[in-house]
Design brief:
Elements lengths: L6 E7 L5 E8 L8 H11 L24 H19 L8
């Protein structure tokens, strides 16, 4: 059986590895009304990838959660705190 993606997201990064542009495409315009697909792709646009480590809206299959889980929110908060520290210390590739 061949897997056909409902949507895809392409991101563009600057020289410091930060996302500055994202393009989300859907298989057909009816997918724009699918909140699960839209949320999943917009989270890709923000920099999140697929995970199978916990029940997640970013799971790789269509049988995953329809909304972000508590773990999704915690990991997003951690990501943004780390990025803030990197900007504060001018350390784009590590935490000093």
């Amino acid at each position: 059986m061949r897997f056909v993606a409902k949507a895809s997201t392409l991101r563009t990064f600057d020289a410091n590895g930060r996302i500055y542009d994202a393009l989300v495409t859907v298989q057909h315009r009816g997918m724009l009304g699918d909140s699960e697909v839209t949320m999943h792709e917009l989270l890709h646009a923000l920099g999140f990838g697929h995970t199978s480590s916990w029940a997640s809206v970013m799971g790789p299959s269509s049988n995953d959660l329809p909304l972000p889980s508590v773990d999704d929110v915690a990991h997003a908060q951690l990501l943004y705190r780390v990025e803030a520290l990197q900007r504060m210390h001018d350390a784009p590739y590590a935490i000093p």
